[in-house]
Amino acid sequence: MSCNATNNYYSLDGTAGTKSTTFQTVIDLNITYPPLFVRIKNIENNTSIADNIIRLVKGDSLRLICESVANPPATTLWQGHHGHSNIMTAFNIQEDTQFTCEAFNIIDGMPERTNRTIHFEVLYGPVHLKLTYNILPGLSKTGTLLKDGNITVIEGSSVMLNCSDSSLPPSTYLWDDRVEGSILNIYKISRLTQTSYMCMAKNIMATTFNGNVTGRNTISLQLHVLYGPRDMSVVYNNTFAINRVLRVLEGWSFGLSCFANSQPASNISWKGFSTQGSDNNMFINNVNTGINKIVTCTRTNIMVDSLGYIISKSGKLTIELDVLYPPALQPIEKQYVVINMSLNVVCKLATFGNPPDTNFTWNKLDSNRTLVKTGETFKIDRAQLSDEGDYQCQASNTMQAIGNKTLHGSSKSQFYLDIQYAATIKHFYANTSKGRTIIIHQNQSLELICEVDGDPYPSSHILNATGEQQLELNGSIAPSKYVTAYLHRARCEYDAGMYKCATNNVHVSTLQEENLFILIQCSPTASPFAPPLTTLHMAPNDTAVLTFTIKAYPEPSITDVTWSKGVSGGWDILSNDNHYTISVSVDGLQTELIINSIQKNDFGIYRVNVSNKIGSTSEVFTLQSKAAPENPQGVNVVRSGITEIELEWIPGFNGGEQQTFIINYTDTNLEIWNAIRVPDNSTTHTLRGLKPDTTYKVKMRAENIIGNSTWTDYIEISTLAEIDDKGYVSKAIGGSIGGMTVICIIFTVMNILWRRKIKEQSTKSTCEYEDLGQDTRKKGSQTIGSYESYSFDQRQVNTYKRITELEMKEYANLPCHLNASSESQIAQVTDGDPVAHVNGSVHAAQVTAKSK
Fold this sequence. Notes:
The protein has 852 residues and is mostly beta strands.
């Protein structure tokens, strides 16, 4: 050790000074003492710990060294699980704890000890931050713990949020919208309300070694706001939103979509349609005016908040469907107007369109003119032929559909304007000549052509106007402007003469006619339209007229006609005198021989010969005396009743005079004859007032003023038996019925065979045209001195309507056909007597066919 002495002095001049003196020596002192205290240091930063409390953050780690000052030196040890070391290492400190360090030495054999206990105070931040909530009006007083960070609320609700945690030191709370405090109230939540929230908890932890450490934590939540359907819209074809009214065209097909903003999504329903669409779509196919025009879309959702509160809300949107359609016109009938007259046609609407404003235009379709007239009425002041044609009225409206699409709807009604005028004949001619007189050869074919004009089409006829009755040619009548008639292999006896084309229509008061003449070169031949009556039955002192009508060209002159009377060995030529009168018509086509006051020697045969430069023909006539009638033929029972019997027969030749039929009948048990007179125009008669189940004999004869015919063979026939109320025959006539049946069968078979024979004789044979009228000359028949034309019912190629004269065109084999009505009128058909009496008048064209 050393000792140092120092003094201070001042010199005379006042200067201060110091002067030291040091004495140094070594002295060894060994002072023992126990450990008085324990010093603890942080090994990491060599910081001594003055306080016995160490504040640290939960989870920190720490290495401490324990030291002490003593003499002799002390031993320091941490007690506990740290072993015999003065260094203690603590890892991941989680909770408050304490550790003790002991220091000891031995002085004079005695242990001296001291220790120090360090307390660890664990600080921790807001690690376990939680959030509870209530939805007001709340269902929970304590609140519901937020688990997944989402809260679902219904619009209009209020929410109270409570943010909490167990930190040390306690935390302060701050919400992201700068609201301090653990509780946040959100009132009257709407879609516009903030939906994301975060609560931040924070504390300041003052640590021993690290200073102030800030602990913090956040918790977030998402607010899901549920709300009912709103902002609804109906969209057309996913393109155009509809503003209350949807304007579409009739016939369109389209889809409607209904949209709404809602959370959660809403379900859709439609009202106003009979069918439901899929999802939010409705498809309308071929819309029409009859559809329900008020359409309502309803969207509904069900909202459930996080606390299970349920509420349903709906939204509706109604639109009006305005179906646009064009106007519809009434049909316009065909229009008729007489030339030079005026015409007014009104275009009438059957229905107005939508919109109803309508424009009218008229067009003539078959001309270059398009716009003829405008307006509802079409008018022509003086109609001309050039105005005839197809016209069209078009009614249109302007339709403004959705999407600002402008469309023009229209309806058209078409009609034909017929300008009518009087019928006229433009030309009447033949295919061989344009002249008025046409000369052709026998068997030459010819076509007649008549060109007419008029509107409406004239009713035109080509007529054979040669005779007193004008005859329409087959195929000539036609509502046309070009009429033809065809003469095939024309024959002078049928087809020569005047032909006429006649036409008219409603606009002409008189028939328009034009004539031409057809002359056919041929030798004289008997006219089939006036066939000669070659057998005449006359009484003495009567006057007989023998007439022969011919067809010929050139026409014979009077010198070409010769009448002769048959005498033994030849013919005597006759000439005009008091007894005979011979005449020839002006045209040379008819000649007559008149025999005045017939005497017995006048009966016989006569011949006429007619010629021209092409050839000649002759005809033989037979003049016979009148006689008694022939008896009826084929007397037959048509029907047998209980009190009547119906008879039928075929009249025989009447002998040249009107005849009457006498029917005699008698009951076979009485043999008292009853007589019935029947006029000659009857071929059937019914005997009435007879007794039932009785057999009668029947016979007939004919009579005229000359005499009577012989009786026919009688026939037997029985009337039917009466039936009583029990259904039995009033008498035992079973055997009679059987016998009658056999008799009826026999009569029926005989009648059929007889009729077939008659038919074969009268209808199935043919005769040459040249023989027509000649084979009818038979002796022993009488007739009156006049004739009428006979009508064959079999028409040939060149035939006429309403013809009353003979109609025949096939000349090589001419059918001599008699129809069923003729059969009932013929009195007798034999080779010797072919004359027929029909209703009292004599028809002179019966022809008995030659066998070929």
